[in-house]
Amino acid sequence: MTTPAPVEIQDPAAIAGQKLAEKFPGAVTADERPGYTGWMIAPEKLIEAATYIRDQLGYDLLSSVTGVDYIAEEKMEVVYHAYKTTGGPALVFKTQAARVDPIRLPSLTCVWEGADLQEREIWDLYGIRFEGHPDLRRILMWEGFEGHPMRKDWKEAFYDDEVKPYKSRWPEGRHVFAENRTAFGDNVSFAAGFDPEKWTATDPEEALYASLKKYKTEDKDGIPTDHILVNLGPQHPSTHGVFRAVVMLDGENVVSLKPVMGYLHRNHEKIGERNTFLQNMPYTDRLDYFNSMSNNWGYSLAIEKLMGIQVAERAEYIRVIMAELSRIQNHLILIGMLMNDLGAYFTPALYAFEERELILDIFEAVGGSRMMCNYHRFGGVVRDIPEEWMKKIHGLVFDRLSAKIDEFDRLLTENELFVSRLKGIGYLSPEDAIRTSMTGPMLRASGIPYDIRRADPYGVYDRFDFNVAVRYNGDLYDRYLIRIDEMRESLKILEQALKQIPAGPVMSVKPTYQAKVPAGEAYGRIESPKGELGFYVVSNGKPNPYRYHVRAPSFINLTSLEMTCVNQKIADFVAILGAVDIVLGELDR
Amino acid sequence: METYGKGILKGLVVTAKRFFNTYIEDLKWWGKRYHTAEGIAHRSSKDAKGIFTVQYPEEKLPVPEEYRANPFLIYDEGENGERDIRCTACGICAKACPPQCIWIVRGSDPETGKPVAKPSEFYIDFDICMNCGFCAEYCPFDAIKMDHDYEIASYGRNLTDMDELLKPAKYYAEIRPLNYALEEAARAEKAAAKAARAAAAG
User: Fold this and answer.
1) CA distance to partner chain B, nearest, from residue A360 (Å)
2) What is the pTM of this model?
3) Residues contacting A172, CB < 8 A, separation 6+
């Protein structure tokens, strides 16, 4: 008698992958490296397979595109994470090219426009040429930069050592200040043919200006008209930092627009690969510095997946409480700053700051710092919430915030000036929103109820009763309203979490500064207030991550910026950008 | 019928309420709202109304116990005022430090020249310290802790040596009373267990 084979519970992504492999025999194989998942697709079949994944398998949202340099295997790999907007786990597919310049792979921008900025980033940092990309220019580094800094054999100007802890920080027992090892000594190399003496500001940006659509000069009623090129930023108050937009105008109307970024680029990912696993935690605080609690969570999620550890029960609730408080303060600030952009100078912004101060007081008491919380550890959080501060959180959640959100609602929602500036402006259709990989409030304001807390729950979010806020008009006004809705939903979650939080330890493992992370890959993603924040981490069993990638929502949500701005007035660009909710620390990484 | 301007008026009521709340609160508190500890505490509580601002530097918000500014080293004071530095130069803080700003030189016995478990030099480069608190968190000897002094702006570079870093344990007890009590209790327990073991063995 034979025993029946054990029933395999397969996740939907594995079934979809099987179908993919059957459809493209020979070209699609399972990734069988230990600790890895997903499907390896031959580059020549990539576009075909991606179209099949999008149209037939239903994985319509391309969330993350990541380059990885496997220098020992002499391969360059690109990893794609695609999701269904109806929910569920990722279909991970990869493609590889030999690591011999020029490295070429097909571009997926024809299937998902959301790959646009991300492929440019990979070209910039890894030097993989994406054939068929409409505008493959450097994005984070400047045009005259030589080399591709994320490659494993590239060394930064202030190169110390391959990994931390550094042995070279104090050579010969003597401290050397960083500026004494100056970048203009023998550490800098320029691209071939580049002479800094002869450099003028316009030269390397010809390609940028050429990529803009020109408005055709013509005679309108005897008056000759011409396009105007405007550089908004990088030093412009409306761009929330050092973001720059190059805008081509016809009169007041936007004809074409290109975002230019990288002014705050510090190669966070390279730093991350030099750090040990735990050392990255305080660095994640500095990505989206409004939501360091959420950033910490995304990163710990990825590492906990790799380590295969459970999070202490109480810590799970504390994480929810902190993440939702952080969402509320982020949305308040967003609305306040949006009002600043529209000209309601600082009254709403400072009202928002009041509530934010109270929330930051809590972060300071538990994490030790108002913005750089550094609160999560692998397996839990660093310390419990002190009793007196638990009371303060209760007071804030049950007695104050709800009334204050209502007050904001009364202050702004019906204000005619405000409404007329927002309604019908910056429209983004649901199809376009998915195509351009929008996530978070941007996607939900376009009518797609996609919230990772519900679609692919992490932590203990499956235990709470809340609605996914969704609005259907896809304009600026809905992007404002959805933030108000989300704050109310966050309060609902907070109330439940505060009632249900169990007693117990806040760490499931012994705290250590040397996390032992087994080899493999993991993608941890959370619904950060700005969208999907993902961390793709590859470990090779050493104390430092082999690959550390941040899927930054601020960055990818800019893919649709041109789309939403075209044919709008230049003054509306400011509001449209404000409502995307970008933070430059995360955008430029 | 839609009246244009209704929404604006509704919003103006909110701002007017906020404006008058300040004066109502001022009257309620009779001059005690500013420059007093209760007043500051009230203004940063859930019941705060009206003006919110704390007038730094005349008024200062109290910092919570876990607040972390720069790290400092702790020494216990002996009976004759001698300094017993807790640090054993094990180097865990330097290894855990994300920006790698700590440098320790292990001391040696002046007679035999053998290394001893004490630092002879201890530097922290505060220019690159990111105040993450890992050094304090992972120090097994409670020898390095995070300070509460946030007024640390300076004109020069801040490569800080051991003399400047050392502060007495009673200062630590002052700024972090709860943590200090917990650590002392744990230490006493450990010492008691050790004594019990020694008694059982001997």
Assistant:
1) 11
2) 0.88
3) none
